[in-house]
């Protein structure tokens, strides 16, 4: 008998989502605009608590794409991007005909190494091109070293496009992730910390930038009775149905962050006596991770694969860490700066089931696999 699948991270409804969706039907706002969209944006603005302006979009990828456009990235430009990430951090750079310049990670947070970042900027400038933007990521919810990264960005006057797709609810020195960059992207895909089934948002610091994002996301229509266009537009706005799900999800966001953090605590205690394993943990009290995914490092690629397969046999989903972009065939011609940190993390790392809906009985099944594997 195969047991029910334990997912890495699956949607977790709070209970009020359908009320907002039904409201949309009842009022016939079944469109990519309406009260749910506006209210969802206000909910996020209040949550982030930094006088930000939020535009709800169809995906996090769309937010990154429009963010790069608004930072004036053009064909032939270079954009600096964390190498260890999901491909959606880098793909929009390629959509625009620009070249990603990838940066290695550091071992504390697994995110963009500020030292390699500066080295890259100096070298690209010496080669005659100043990068147009810097895209750091808060991997698995762990905030990047934003003080150091921001200091480099400021010194060379390069704007930050913050990929906060995995980090809604995380904070660095008390400031919420998604509020550090000139522009930031959030994601509400099905596996993220909250979901709208699919969706994303752009976070900006001025109403003008938010308005620009909404304008571009609704086909860039000029103000005229007929359809008049002076710019290329996109169909990237969020649907009022999806935003209804989002409003319900915002009501349980903090509770779900607490549950994910409890999963992390569970893994920390479980692995406390297993010297082969390190759990990705906040390096200091400056960092507050939503622990979207709990991730561990093993001693070798072989050991990681063996553990992954041991989980698979028990119908438990785990996943290797993001494969660095500079090692992906599609980006093989892009420059890379740093050493082998992200490569080594990829070889030895594994993400474990981390859903806010993970049940006690499921934890027991996970615990058994781990204890058997390390024969405790
Ligand atoms: C999920 C994710 C994205 C893309 O978000 P979508 O809403 O799926 O388009 C971008 N960057 C990172 C790091 C992500 O995890």
TrEMBL record:
Keyword Transferase attached: yes
InterPro entries: DegT/StrS_aminotransferase (IPR000653), PyrdxlP-dep_Trfase (IPR015424), PyrdxlP-dep_Trfase_major (IPR015421), PyrdxlP-dep_Trfase_small (IPR015422)
GO MF: transaminase activity
Coiled coil (UniProt feature): none
Keywords (A to Z) from UniProt: Aminotransferase, Pyridoxal phosphate, Transferase
A Pfam family annotated for this UniProt entry: DegT_DnrJ_EryC1
SUPFAM superfamilies: PLP-dependent transferases
Record family assignment: Belongs to the DegT/DnrJ/EryC1 family.
PANTHER family: DTDP-4-AMINO-4,6-DIDEOXYGALACTOSE TRANSAMINASE (PTHR30244:SF34), TRANSAMINASE (PTHR30244)
Name used for this protein in its record: Aminotransferase class I/II-fold pyridoxal phosphate-dependent enzyme
Organism: Flavobacterium difficile
